[in-house]
């Protein structure tokens, strides 16, 4: 495919190049959804957003979920990986979830080099599977896990251990109980195979850190999964989860935050530490939250924490998580091929980019935006700035680092050193995931104020801007009854929080003092999605849209 891409940008016939920079601003997790008291975007005081919505032909919504972003079905909510891939690449790419589905259905997963690698341990060692136990479809899916477990048992695996990270973020809190039961049934159904859950913990505190926000998270996972050490030991996972959730206590704990645990036998010995000669599969298809644990398994020289013991294993990822680092070296399903991203087009044409977010979303505006590529296309032309995120549950500090990001953005805009300034505000998404309505309202209002400041600076400079989002989240904070859409209530009559992303479309708005009057949204693309944004951005920068991208949303 790469060979067919024409990277040469041509001037747009009617939209001249701007005098100032183009600002691309992503409000992560800000969807356009039913406007009632559980929509934090709607409830928040958002004078900037409200004014943009009133501008004819320069505000619309676009699809951010399902097949529009390369997910298997339209029942799949969007997420940051697929969202930023589509925004940055301008293309709809078959995503990891779809590719794994196809590889399992065709059996090709069992024919590759990755499967051969783990099979070497089937007769004499243990096969370990580590990942997010959830059917949320953002990082992993239980049906794929069960498929791999059954496939391994059919192909001679004699001893299987599963290390489960509980979700409650892409699926309702409390669903971990059901997933563990279901998994235990699958494990018990394998004839002649010794199969058990060996360890686990909640995804936010165990194993699934991202962008090196806090390596302690990964260390906790390593200790539990590999060394068989954790502050909590139980003889079965169902009991572990119920006890750690502490539902009847004064301080219940949600699935996302369960402490690490290890399953032990009657003699108190861990049932499944990882040892030399074992095989290890990370069963998440999405990259960001399993890159660090993959490094811990794969890298000989590793200084992030003391591994104590580094077992020599046949290690694979469900996919290759980082194409540039070639990490992991072996994998079960080849990752999506994403070529000709907008970042590469910009740098090949000598255009200068600034990208900034805080740690939690830093890789979203760089790595995901650039087609799951770490590093730079051309370091001389790209400046990437990461503002360190706080290390707390984000409803405790809902402003997060939006102030610092806005300041960095303004400085970059004013510097005159960049043609495109790309910003991601993490708040609506990260605070939305906590399920805390009041904090999420605060988060949305603050982001709105920061966006206003950025747009004002663009105007000062005679530039142009495009404001959008990658998927919904803050726009619905409650679980709803299917037909009436009324909140589901718990035993005490309180609405049950929705911590996941939503299926909502997202807004896209364009403007700026430097945007010629005739530039407006076309009306013939009612089903447009995130993949239509990249071409739009090139138009706003005064170039024709690259031919390999989905059509631009604007006409001039
Ligand atoms: O936190 C994450 O890993 C996901 C939800 O599972 O959110 P996002 O896609 O917004 O990064
Ligand atoms: Mn996101
Ligand atoms: Mn999210």
Automatic annotation (TrEMBL):
Q: Which residues does the annotation say bind Mn(2+) 1?
A: 429, 433, 501
- What are the positions of the active site? 80
The UniProt record gives the binding positions of Mn(2+) 2 as 28, 80, 470-471
Q: Name one GO molecular function term.
A: manganese ion binding
The Metalloenzyme domain, residue ranges: 21-544
Q: Which cofactor does it need?
A: Mn(2+)
Gene3D superfamilies named in the record: Alkaline Phosphatase, subunit A, BPG-independent phosphoglycerate mutase, domain B
- State which Enzyme Commission number(s) the record gives: 5.4.2.12
**Per its UniProt record, what Pfam families does this chain match?**
iPGM_N, Metalloenzyme
User: Where, by residue number, does substrate bind?
Assistant: 139, 169-170, 203, 210, 286-289, 361
| Residues spanning the signal sequence | none
Q: Tell me, what is an example of a GO biological process annotation in this record?
A: glycolytic process
Pathway recorded for this protein: Carbohydrate degradation; glycolysis; pyruvate from D-glyceraldehyde 3-phosphate: step 3/5
What do the Gene Ontology cellular component annotations say? cytoplasm
Q: Which reaction does it catalyse?
A: (2R)-2-phosphoglycerate = (2R)-3-phosphoglycerate
Domain BPG-independent PGAM N-terminal positions: 100-322
Which UniProt keywords are present, listed alphabetically?
Answer: Glycolysis, Isomerase, Manganese, Metal-binding
**Family to which this protein belongs:** Belongs to the BPG-independent phosphoglycerate mutase family.
PANTHER family (UniProt xref) = 2,3-BISPHOSPHOGLYCERATE-INDEPENDENT PHOSPHOGLYCERATE MUTASE
Record protein name field: phosphoglycerate mutase (2,3-diphosphoglycerate-independent)
